[in-house]
Design goal:
Elements lengths: L1 H20 L8 E2 L6 H7 L20 E5 L5 H15 L3 E6 L4 H9 L7 E4 L2 H7 L10 H4 L7 E4 L2 E6 L3 E8 H8 L15 H13 L1 H4 L3 E3 L10 H7 L1 H11 L12 H13 L13 H9 L3 E7 L3 H6 L7 E4 L11 E6 L3 E4 L5 H16 L1 H10 L18 H11 L3 E4 L8 H16 L4 H20 L1
Parallel strand pairs: 1-3, 2-3, 8-9, 11-13
Antiparallel strand pairs: 4-12, 5-6, 6-12, 7-9, 7-10, 7-11
Helix pairs in contact: 1-17, 2-4, 3-16, 10-18, 15-16, 18-19
């Protein structure tokens, strides 16, 4: 019960922190779409939003649901859940999952089609600015009536345009068994994971493991920092969140038209740590994938793996247990970071396509209501997908519990300050891609760090102006 209470409180603490601080395999196969006329056709379709309707009274007769899912990690569970709903109601629900790193381009392509998604997601205020014309007003719907707080929604005026469906946490997942073995070694620089509470200590431990990897029986301290599209989001987005978060905190704002890059030396330090104490040479990172990093960690070839709570199911399926896993904050060498917690928030906001037919809109609203109120839906989201949700309907027996969520709970309970998810304020996907390319070239030795700084700082201004004009 204590764990459930802490987990429930975690949901509130996570998003409250996010708002104060700033703000990834198929229907059974992954879909990547490359239609060339997507944006023009989408723009042509964006006129005339349907009026909000009450879930309980409107008819969904003849309607169907098409969910364009963002998260490859839960693709199979969404397909199975959709099949259950169709079996119970007769309403067709199709789930297509965009390939990792391609969601925005896939959405642009799919939204322009005659059979467009009726349910999709945006990543926060920046995403909403792009897709607002397609976001049905969810005010008065059952899903909105069951969300715990407006802290979990995206609004334009009084209109509710998006609702978060999962609150997640990421950091540096570690192999408890390997790390505990390390603590017994003569060359160990600390004797407990509790002593790893700063970048300097993390660096000393990682370099010690790397220097003694043969004795440890590992290939490297960290898994490969792959820069293939299935993996690069971990570094051009999630790792890049840290210098943005600390800059926002220091300046007291929640977004900016021009990032200063105050903490980019810290970003470089942790990136160097990852690529120089890894299972592979930095020159190989451009082709390394997310699956490879996951396998390296699950097979015990690396001690540390930057990832998040969404990865839990994959690691369990790969043979790991709760006893094998813990999670550390991503320390980057900032003053006071011993009081830093994990990175907690959401970039996953459900939106209903306002350009769909009234029947399809109502079918989609009915499906969402069933997902968050039925035993089948709640069990799937909490226990199969491992989601912490912001819905009050989950409080009674449907709070996800696993080793990675427990780690997040412990940092919150210990008074550590969660790092807010500021990356939804990144100006564009093109900005992320520019940073990712510069990181890759730096790792390969074909580019220098100044190019990363240029992509980060100058690229931010350029992309922000393009997005807001």
């Amino acid at each position: 019960m204590k764990k459930k209470v802490i987990s429930a409180l975690l949901c509130v603490a996570m998003v409250s922190s996010m708002l104060i601080g700033c703000g990834s395999s198929n229907t059974s196969t992954t879909q990547e779409t490359t239609d060339s006329a997507d944006v023009e056709a989408a723009d042509d379709a964006s006129e005339g939003e349907a009026a909000p309707a009450d879930d309980a009274t409107a008819s969904a007769e003849g309607g169907s649901v098409y969910y364009l899912n963002f998260k490859p990690e839960q693709a199979d569970q969404w397909v199975a859940l959709a099949a259950k709903y169709t079996e119970q109601t007769g309403v067709q629900v199709d789930v297509v999952t965009a390939a990792s790193g391609t969601y925005e381009s896939t959405l642009k392509s799919e939204i322009a089609k005659t059979e467009a998604p009726t349910l999709f997601q945006v990543n926060g205020p920046v995403g909403l600015a792009t897709w607002s014309d397609y976001c049905y007003d969810l005010s008065g719907t059952e899903i909105y009536n069951n969300v715990k707080s407006d802290d979990f929604v995206l609004k334009e005026g009084d209109a509710v345009k998006g609702i978060a469906y999962v609150i997640e946490t990421y950091g540096i997942i570690y192999n408890k068994t390997l790390l505990n073995d390390y603590f017994t070694k003569d060359y160990a620089v600390v004797s407990s994971v509790d002593e790893i509470n700063s970048f300097d200590t993390l660096k000393a431990v990682a370099e010690s493991i790397q220097a003694n990897k043969e004795d440890m029986g590992v290939e490297g301290a960290f898994t490969s920092a792959g820069m293939d599209s299935s993996s690069d989001w971990r570094f051009k987005t999630h790792l890049a969140n840290l210098p943005i978060y600390y800059e926002y905190e220091g300046n007291g704002y929640s977004s900016t038209a021009a990032i200063e890059g105050t903490y980019l030396d810290n970003y470089k330090a942790v990136w160097d740590l990852y690529i120089n104490n890894s299972t592979c040479a930095p020159t190989l990172l451009s082709s390394k994938t997310g699956d490879e990093a996951e396998a390296e960690f699950a097979l015990g070839e690396a001690v540390f793996f930057q990832n998040g709570t969404w990865e839990y199911g994959n690691l369990i399926n790969a043979g790991m247990t709760d006893a094998d896993m813990g999670m550390l904050p991503i320390y980057i060498g900032v003053d006071g970071e011993e009081n830093q917690g994990l990175c907690t928030g959401s970039e996953n906001y459900w939106c209903v396509n306002s350009q769909a037919s009234e029947a399809d809109i109502q079918a989609t609203l009915n499906f969402l209501a069933w997902v968050i109120t039925s035993d089948e839906g709640r069990d799937s989201m909490a226990n199969e997908m491992g989601f912490l949700t912001p819905f009050s309907t989950f409080d009674d027996g449907y709070v996800a519990e696993n080793a990675l969520i427990a780690a997040a709970d412990e940092y919150i309970a210990g008074g550590k300050k969660s790092v807010a998810w500021c990356f939804p304020t990144m100006p564009s996907e093109s900005w992320k891609d520019g940073v990712g390319s510069a990181l890759t070239e730096y790792a390969a030795g074909t580019g220098d760090w100044d190019a990363v700084v240029t992509a980060f700082v100058d690229g931010w201004v350029t992309e922000y102006e393009a997005a807001n004009n």
